[in-house]
Specification:
single chain; alpha/beta; Aspartate Aminotransferase, domain 1; Aspartate Aminotransferase, domain 2; 2 domains; 7-stranded mixed beta sheet; 5-stranded antiparallel beta sheet; 15 helices; 16 strands; about 15% strand; binds pyridoxal-5'-phosphate
């Protein structure tokens, strides 16, 4: 590792152990073991504090580094921009802010406005606030309810957790905000767990379950429906056929805004710019974060249609009729500067095309593994966003215990391949191995990942 002595590394590890509060983990293991520090990255690979090389099959752990590590052109774009003008917040605009908005909107027919913020949670909060303000402005304080789906995740803040469909994440953080209403998920593989689910046309039926909730709550009280196009942390749930078409019809029928959370799927992850574009849906609000600048800068966007924006336009009778919201670091130029270059790379290197080809290879490879390893109950995927669900029994589909799933992840890590498992906790529905490499993955990379999984499954379930 360039320029670091053994002493430097020991210092870093000690400082981390003493002072860093890591995300999503208990710290007991660090008392005897070391926290893992990622020191360098290039392309698809990262190196830890011991110089051990890893192939990254999770794009920075959380579906983020879409264009891979060590992109000099992004670093240069950010450097040039921040030397010229690093920040101005509040009511003003900036050059990269305007240019990225123009470029982004060109990829999103039907959408017209970009609201800048910093994280996926924040973008979703902005969307929720827009829906609430519209409810007050247009519907006399009714239509404040926001529907969200079981197993979907929209963020870590209290409002986004109020819209959180993963109980294991929400436990002990309540009480939550009112008027967030849960609707059922659409997981075909686990439809046997849903009362009344049909053998045929499951997608339409699952969307119909949302309509039932709307009718129960009263359509005049429901302002928006918020969904992930492909559910990420909740189990890599790809939507069944016919689902999205029906969801769109339902939203139109009851005058409900469709908010699509593209925090994970946005910027090419599924092989198209945005996950919803796989299904021909026309959203009113789209939120995005992770892949927008591939982790080279913190940026998120809440994008709306003109129909939504219009509702906030000047109104002489109501001086409060504008979006009374701000995000300090929405004025950072590093984000849109990085995002512009990130998008250029995605286009010039045809990474969307690559995602489709490599995603198909990943699914084929995983399906071949399923022939060999009976613990793989289901293989799902859209582009380079794939999952393999582990079960103890293919007939009952009893989820594999998370300890075993974690053993597979650990074995792969040992082999130098970082894979994920969707957020593991109790109750253990979190039994799905997750693969979301940077979109630059080659055929050799994909094969290396699935070969590692093959070896790991063989050892763990010997
Ligand atoms: N929405 C989805 C679908 C996510 O997966 C996440 C994070 O993983 C978020 C929102 C929250 O994003 P952030 O952690 O940037 O706040």
């Amino acid at each position: 590792m360039d320029g670091m002595t053994a002493n430097d590394i020991t210092h870093v590890v000690d400082a981390d152990r003493a002072h860093v509060w890591h995300h999503l983990i208990q710290h007991k293991p660090f008392e005897t073991g070391e926290p893992r520090i990622i020191v360098e990255g290039k392309g698809m690979r990262v190196w830890d504090q011991h110089g051990k090389e890893h192939l990254d099959a999770v794009a920075g752990g959380v579906w983020t580094v879409n264009v891979g590590y060590g992109r000099e052109s992004i670093a240069n774009a950010v450097r040039d921009q921040i030397l010229k003008m690093n920040f101005f917040g509040g009511t003003v605009g900036t050059i990269p802010g305007a240019l990225f908005a123009e470029k982004l909107i060109a990829k999103m027919p039907g959408m017209t406005r970009v609201y800048y913020c910093n994280s996926g949670s924040e973008a979703n909060e902005k969307a929720f606030k827009m829906v609430r303000q519209i409810a007050h402005k247009r519907y006399g304080g009714k239509k404040t309810k926001i529907l969200y789906r079981d197993r979907d995740y929209h963020g870590s803040t209290l409002a986004t957790m109020s819209a959180g469909g993963q109980d294991e994440r929400n436990a002990q953080y309540g009480p939550f905000a009112p008027d967030f209403i849960r609707v059922p998920h659409c997981m075909e593989y686990r439809k046997h767990e849903q009362d009344g689910a049909p053998d045929q046309n499951y997608g339409e039926w699952a969307a119909g379950q949302i309509e039932e909730v709307i009718l129960r709550e009263g359509p005049d009280t429901v302002g928006a429906l918020c969904l992930e196009p492909v559910t990420a942390g909740g189990g890599v749930i790809t939507p069944p056929e016919g689902y999205w078409e029906r969801v769109q019809e339902i939203c139109e029928k009851y005058d409900i805004l469709l908010h699509i959370d593209e925090v994970v799927c946005g910027m090419g992850r599924t092989g198209v710019w945005f996950g919803y574009q796989n299904y021909g849906v026309k959203p009113d609000i789209v939120t995005m974060a992770k892949g927008v600048a591939s982790g080279y800068a913190a940026i998120s966007c809440c994008v709306t249609s003109e129909k939504v924006f219009e509702l906030f336009k000047d109104d002489a009778s109501d001086p409060m009729n504008y979006f009374r919201d701000i995000s300090t670091f929405g004025g950072c130029t590093a984000g849109p500067a990085a995002a512009l270059e990130n998008m250029r790379i995605l286009e010039d290197e045809d990474l969307l095309g690559n995602t489709l080809t490599m995603g198909a290879r990943m699914v084929d490879n995983l399906q071949a593994l399923a022939e060999k390893h009976r613990v793989i109950g289901d293989v799902r995927g859209k582009g380079l966003f794939c999952g393999a669900e582990l079960v103890t029994d293919r007939d009952t589909k009893e989820p594999m215990h998370e300890k075993m799933v974690q053993a597979v992840v650990a074995d792969c890590m040992q082999q130098g391949v970082i894979i994920g498992a969707t957020n593991r906790s109790i109750p253990s529905k979190n039994n799905t191995l997750c693969f979301s490499p940077p979109l630059i993955a080659t055929a050799d990379d994909i094969d290396e990942i699935t070969n590692a999984v093959d070896g790991a499954l063989g050892r763990v379930f010997a």
